[in-house]
Amino acid sequence: MQSFTNISVVVQGPVQNTATRTHHEEGITIKCLNSIRQFLPGATIILSTWQGQNISGLDVDKVLLNDDPGPDDERFLPLNYHRQLVSTRAGLAQVETRYALKLRSDNFLTGNQFVDLQQAFLKGQDEAKLFEQRVVVNANLSRRTSHGRRVIMSPSDFFYYGLTQDLKKIWQQPNFCQQSFATDYQQLRLQANEVNKLEAEQVYCQIWLKHLDPNAPLLANRFDKAKQYLSYWERFLANNLIIADPETMGLGLRRVSERKQKRANEYSHDDWLALYKTYCDEDFTIPFSLQQAWLTTRRLIKLPISGSYFKLRHPRSC
Q1: How confident is the model at residue 258, as a pLDDT?
Q2: Mean pLDDT in the chain?
Q3: Under a CB-based contact definition with an 8 Å cutoff, are residues 84 and 66 in contact?
Q4: What pLDDT is attached to residue 230?
Q5: Which of 28, 299, 290, 19 minimizes the C-alpha distance to 158?
Q6: One-letter-per-residue 3-state SS of 165-185
Q7: Under a CB-based contact definition with an 8 Å cutoff, are residues 103 and 37 in contact?
């Protein structure tokens, strides 16, 4: 049996519902922990949760009971921005292995394909690299478009796997108010149209990316700077991340995140392969995928309709 002793899994988030947070599926954290033991035998499990959570009987190696920072001001940040940041940051601080996986407590593993996938694409542009190795992220909610228009800086926050030092670059950020660009960002958000407000994933990404690269843009709304910085964003994706579909990377999602078919507005792994070929390895051959062909066809039909409908509903925001 393959051993994964060089990997630590930081499971972050609540274990049970609370009076003010009722979206957690009953028993899903136990399912999450059991899946790690099944698919990553030998890996270290670090549960980073909150004071007051019942952790009795959970099969973990380390437990961190953090003080809950509470909800954030949604004019500027997603409601649970600091909750995710604090729990992930604390968990990664305890990692002693070369590789780490950041996994939400309401997701689970269905395999370990992401481990080999992380080492499968080795070519790149040195000047575009912010990480030592690529980090694997989940395609679900990694948006490519919104309402028929291109968007940037919107990778899913569910799952991050790679070198521990690289995950720390992403998640061991200071609290938002301590960021050098915090005031500028808040001013942008106050001027933004509420209709086009940033997706939560865009907020997370632009904060850590701006912290790592001063040349990264700050976005006022979800469509902001997409044309000017699309090549910057695509080059970053090709050289620093690997976007993988959950069903082929070994990730299971909570019920609310499951879809009968892939959303047309999300990146697929084949979309990422096209970026890798463009920016990193022009000789790379992308295997034909009937699923990707169907996704491309759906996009040709759905995205223009989505864009037109949005313009009709919100003509002043376009």
Answers
A1: 75
A2: 94
A3: no
A4: 98
A5: 28
A6: HHHHHHHCCCCHHHCCCHHHH
A7: no
Rounded Cα distance between 236 and 271, Å, is 14
CATH class of 1-109: alpha beta
Residues near 15 by Cβ (< 8 Å), separated by ≥ 6? 24, 29, 47, 49, 53, 54, 55, 58, 105
**Rounded Cα gap, residues 184 and 180, in angstroms:** 9
Cα separation, 257 vs 116, in Å, equals 25
Over residues 264-283, the pLDDT tens digits come to 999 999 999 999 999 999 99
Alpha-carbon distance 40 to 29, whole Å?
A: 16
Looking up tokens 């002793």 gives 5
Q: Name every residue whose Cβ is closer than 8 Å to that of residue 87 and which is 6 or more positions away in sequence.
A: 12, 13, 48, 49, 50, 64, 66
The label of the residue with tokens 């990664």 reads 92
Collect all residues with Cβ–Cβ distance below 8 Å to 97 and sequence separation of at least 6.
5, 6, 7, 8, 43, 44, 164
In Å, how far are 23, 38, 85, 202, 261 from 81, measured between CA atoms? 16, 30, 6, 12, 29
Q: What is the pLDDT of residue 202?
A: 97
How high is the pLDDT of residue 16? 79
- What is the residue extent of each domain of the chain? 1-109, 117-155+165-318
Q: Of the candidates 60, 59, 54, which has an alpha carbon nearest to the alpha carbon of residue 16?
A: 54
How distant is the alpha carbon of residue 190 from its chain centre?
25
For residue 268, which amino acid is it?
A: S
Instruction: Report residues of the chain scoring pLDDT below 70.
Output: 18-23, 316-318
